Each structure stands twice: as structure tokens, then as C-alpha cells.
């Protein structure tokens, strides 16, 4: 089945440390890939997206993600985490089929220790 | 300001009492969609609409209805809510192309007793 996997349910990092959130997808072709962030009580905000071309994508708030076709992965990274980055992060893909449907992973909850 | 609005933001109701959650966007987007978010499951699509009068089921449509009579509005209707529809609901909109960025509303938290 086509799916998106975020293997880490919770991650805790210290402020100033680096961060990597993992995302793997299962699909026969390269999908459209997205990372969204959901702050407490808020909607979803797009961090970055990948369609084609350069496999290292820069996003907002200092985030970047790297697409690796051989590993079917699209991991999110940040060199130095700030306390305000505490939130839930969702990897999502648009596959073939109906319209512009986003298929989401189950999310990774990020806690930042001061 | 470009935005997607939802009303109400919070709603407590009882089993069987019909309710409607409204969604409106001011970006002239053709594509609109409803998702529900449940712990441990991420977000799942309920219904989507490619344009006015064009709607289709998503992954979890049971117990929901939608309509798209105007381009800007896409209400979600629960004709007979049940406790398993207690969830956080998000409306989203985008231009029509596959892979276009979707813009999300602030969410509606629903509790069905």
C-alpha cells in the first residue's frame, strides 16, 4: 500500500542542538513531498516542498530537507533548534489519483529542552 | 490577507444532532478539501472538491456530506454525528494542479457526546 512513515513519534532535543526528523514513503514513482508544522492550537503551516530538481530543499524558519530516491526518504533537518520550534511535524505526499490529496504521516512531536 | 477560515472553532454537540462546519477561502482556489486529525493517525482526507458542483470522497467519507455551491465555500455536514466523529477538522484549499501547496484553516475541534 502507498504510505508515508514517520518512525519517530516523539523526539526531544536541547536548544541549539541539531535536528533530523525522518520520513519515508512507499510509492512506485517520485511523489510530491511536503513538510508541514503544527504549533499547539494552530493550523498547519508549510515548511518546504519538493517536486523535482535539486534534492536539497530550503524552507522557512531555517529548515531544510533532502530527498534521497534510493532510500525513499525525505528527512527534515535544522542545524540549531530554537525553543519556538517545539511543535508537531508532519511529512506528507501527493501521489497519483484524485486531485491534490495529501497523504500524511502520523507526525513527530518535537520537544525542545532549554 | 489570504486565508482559509473555519467556523466554529470549537463545538460540543450530542449524538444525532445535525451540524455544519463552514469553510471559506479568499484566494479563488478551485481545489478544496476536508481532513480530520486523530492522535496517532495523522490527517486523513474526508472529501474534496475540484471545483463548483464537483465533489468526491476521500479516504474516510462515512458519516459526512459536503457541498460546493460557490467557489469560496465548502461546508462539511454531519447529519447524525456519532462519538467516533469526535476529532479535529481542517479545511484546506489550493490551485487545481497536483502538488500545488495547500493552505489550511485554523481547525475546528468537535466533541460529540
Q: Can you walk me through this structure?
A:
The complex is a heterodimer of chains A (114) and B (113). Chain A is mainly beta and 114 residues long. In chain A, 0% of the residues lie in helices and 52% in strands. Chain A is built from no helices and 12 strands. Chain A has strands spanning 3-5, 10-14, 19-21, 24-26, 32-38, 44-50, 56-58, 64-68, 73-78, 87-94, 102-104, 108-113. In chain A, the strands form 3 sheets. In chain A, strands 2, 5, 6, 10, 11 and 12 form a 6-stranded mixed β-sheet that branches. In chain A, strands 3-9-8-7 form a 4-stranded antiparallel β-sheet, with no helix packed on it. Chain A is globular and about 45 Å long. In chain A, 34% of the residues are buried. Chain B is mostly beta strands and 113 residues long. Chain B contains no helices and 11 strands. Chain B has strands spanning 4-7, 10-13, 19-25, 31-38, 42-51, 54-57, 65-66, 76-78, 87-94, 103-104, 108-112. In chain B, a hairpin with an 8-residue loop joins strand 9 and strand 10. The radius of gyration of chain B is 13 Å and the shape is globular. The model of chain B has no long low-confidence stretch (mean pLDDT 95). The chains are: A mainly beta (114), B mainly beta (113). Chain A binds chain B through residues 4, 9, 32, 34, 36, 42-46, 49, 51, 90, 92, 94, 98-102, 104-107, and chain B through 4, 31, 33, 35, 40-45, 48, 50, 56, 58, 90, 92, 94, 96-102, 104-107.
The helix-strand sequence of chain A is EEEEEEEEEEEE
Number of strands of chain A: 12
Which spans of chain B have pLDDT < 50 for at least 5 consecutive residues?
none
- The percent range for strand residues of chain A is over 45%
**Major β-sheet annotation of chain B:** 7 strands, mixed
Query: If you compute it from the alpha carbons, what radius of gyration of chain B comes out, rounded to the nearest whole angstrom?
Result: 13 Å
Largest sheet of chain A: 6 strands, mixed
The shape of chain A, in one word, is globular
Judged by helices, strands and strand pairing, the structural class of chain A is mainly beta
Helicity range of chain A = under 10%
Report the total helices of chain A. 0
Give the SSE string of chain B: EEEEEEEEEEE
Q: Structural class, from helix and strand content of chain B?
A: mainly beta
The number of helices of chain B is 0
User: Beta-sheet strand percentage of chain B?
Assistant: over 45%
Overall pLDDT of chain B: 95
Mean pLDDT of chain A: 92
Given as residue ranges, the uncertain stretches of chain A (5+ residues, pLDDT < 50) are none
Number of strands of chain B: 11
Shape of chain B: globular
